[in-house]
Amino acid sequence: MSDIETDQNLLFGVIALQSDLINTRQFVDACTLWSSDKASSLADILVRHEWLTDEDRRHVEYLLKRRLQKQSGSARQTLATLPVAVKSALASIDDHSIHESLQGLGDDVETIDAFPSTLPARQERVVLKGLHSTGGIGQVWIAHDPILGREIALKELRADKAGSKRNRERFFREAQLTGQLEHPGIVPVYDYHFADDGSRCYYTMRFVKGQTLTEAIRNYHGNRSSTGAGTTAELIRLLNMFVNLCQTIAYAHSREVIHRDLKGDNVIVGDFGEVIVLDWGLAKRLDQTGPEPADEPDPMQTLVPTSEPPETVSATMQGEKLGTPAYMAPEQARGQIDLIDRRTDVYGLAAILYEILVGRPPFRGDSIVDVLDRVIHQRPQSPAEQQPGLPKELERICLKGLSKDRDDRQQSAGQLADQVQSWIAERAERKRTEQERERFFNLSLDLLGILDAEGRLKQTNPAWDSLLGWDNAEINGRPVRDLLHPDDRPHITRDLERILSGESLTAAEYRCLCQDGTYRWVLWNASLIAGESSIYIVGRDITERKQTEQTFRELLESAPDGMVVVSASGQIVMVNAQLERLFEYTRDELLGQPIEILVPEEFRPQHPAHVARFAANPQFRPMGSDLRLSGRRKDGCLFPVEVSLSPVQTEQGLLISCAVRDVSSRDDQHNH
């Protein structure tokens, strides 16, 4: 590439920078990436990383054309106006053509030379292949170790940061802490090198191929929004990664080290299942007695603007408020460094869990200041409100970890891991139960179904087709109340509320709509599925029984005597109109009551025993069995009666049919 092309690419970035379309960090990062991809222009890279829009690009290209026309095609005059800090940052990029452009800018050459771009002694051991990423005070290269024949990562202190002794101390401390933490979830450090004057330093480590956890979460929610899936295998995979992450942090805590900058961008998910925690640059030893290195102001970011692009809330902050705003615990956001402990990392882990569940961090805002204010004062929005169908227990675990008060959170990363792992294990058990239930579903002759919390059918078995004529595709997703007789619908609404509150529904009789428009009676039992907001329903066709009952009821109504039918326990289940008139009770006042309501008070204590003896040896007893009996009306009046008893065997068990005849007139004649 010619010097003119290099100058014009740099000038494009300078104009975008001067127009406030990009910030200094984005300009330097784009130049760094461009140095290893000269097939693309700097404009291509800025647009590819969404630092510029296509419209911005056309605007800058127009300004570039005008600037070159005014300066007779030379870009050097504008490049010379770059701040020294920006020139120094560009000088740290290992690119000859950029250095050639900077060398021709005059008095600033000596400043640039203070940041040599070549690595110190023993560089021949490592061959740089390309820049991988940059940020904070360091940048990471993909490199090759020719002696051992392996690909490695090389992290070096950026040249524009190397002039600060405090930055060098922090960089060394990061390498040292990372190297001392020997765990499968922490990248191993191979060696550390520094120049004699301490101005240049780097360390090498294992290079993990994969994606960040943030990218994995973004992919999951992108697929989820298009498919509408709920608790999927991919979510379980992310949760297992999260458990591994928690265990890694629990190990670091056991070594008295806290991370202080946990976020998905600092976690690599390897191509072969590895979950690696990176960037221990803000880590702190809890047993450290001396003061930790303080940060000097960044010449490229001295002030925090009141309006920041959205991605800045996920960028790491240096200084008093260490960490990343979107994942920062309240004590970090307040700058209360003395309160930062293991539970601060627990909050960061819970913020990552929130992002797994929802697709974004707990708090967002228009600026860093806005986000920090929300972290300190606001409760995070319920995950289930944003992603309906999320398991309540996962939401509870997540929100507990995001508590403002450290004492209200899980007290260790291990405890948080155990809670999520327990939920995964319980779900696996529920899945096995569901599979067994699925097999039973297909075999059962009863109506089986699963309702969601709104009462919609999620799953039905073939009996709905064979009994009611409904194909699964016709009714799945429909509210179950739509399949009931209009007179029964108010009852199902109340019953669903009871079930969701934890009660079980037993022996509820509803008329269910058939596909041909007729109705069949179904006896329902229902209960809440443990650990879920779903209801399991079982229904048995009782249409024939109800028809038999109707016939029996019509026979009762046609009988000349008062008729009452009781269960084996003595509970009234049916009466006719003649009995209502005889005892002066309404039907509703009698149904469900013990038969003793019709017996004189003096005989009531002994009467249940008489019922039990008859139920144990049921035999027909006709009227006029020489028993002098009395009945008691609602007003307390007693009158003589004769009673016949007939045992009736039903599917529900023994019923006793009692015919009651008023013999007051006969006794009066006998007395006269």
Structural summary, described in words:
The strands form 5 sheets. Strands 1-2-3-5-4 form a 5-stranded antiparallel sheet. Strands 12-11-15-14-13 form a 5-stranded antiparallel sheet, sandwiched between helices. Strand 8 and strand 9 form a beta hairpin. The chain is of the alpha+beta class and 672 residues long. 41% of the residues lie in helices and 18% in strands. The protein contains 25 helices and 20 strands. Helix 1 packs across helix 4 and helix 11 packs antiparallel against helix 13.
Short description:
The protein has 672 residues and is an alpha+beta fold. The protein is built from 25 helices and 20 strands.
Can you give keywords for this protein?
5-stranded antiparallel beta sheet; alpha+beta; 25 helices; 672 residues; elongated
Annotate the secondary structure layout.
Elements lengths: L2 H16 L5 H12 L6 H7 L5 H17 L5 H4 L4 H8 L4 H8 L5 H5 L13 E9 L2 E8 L4 E8 L7 H16 L8 E6 L6 E6 L3 E3 H15 L5 H22 L2 E2 L8 E4 L4 E3 L6 E2 L44 H4 L8 H17 L9 H10 L5 H4 L5 H10 L11 H31 L3 E5 L5 E4 L2 H6 L3 H4 L13 H12 L4 E9 L5 E10 L6 E7 L1 H16 L3 E6 L4 E4 L1 H7 L3 H4 L16 H10 L12 E4 L5 E13 L2 E10 L1 H8 L1
Antiparallel strand pairs: 1-2, 2-3, 3-5, 4-5, 6-8, 7-10, 8-9, 11-12, 11-15, 13-14, 14-15, 16-17, 16-20, 18-19, 19-20
Helix pairs in contact: 1-4, 1-7, 11-13, 11-17, 13-16, 16-17
**In which range does the helix fraction lie?**
40-55%
The oligomeric state of the chains shown is single chain
Number of strands: 20
Strand order of the largest sheet: 1-2-3-5-4
Mean pLDDT: 83
The helix-and-strand class reads alpha+beta
Secondary structure tally, helices:
25
Radius of gyration: 40 Å
Largest sheet properties: 5 strands, antiparallel
Globally, the shape reads: elongated
Strand coverage percent: 15-25%
Query: What are the segments in which pLDDT stays under 50 over at least 5 consecutive residues?
Result: 107-123, 295-313, 317-321
- How many angstroms does the end-to-end distance come to? 136 Å
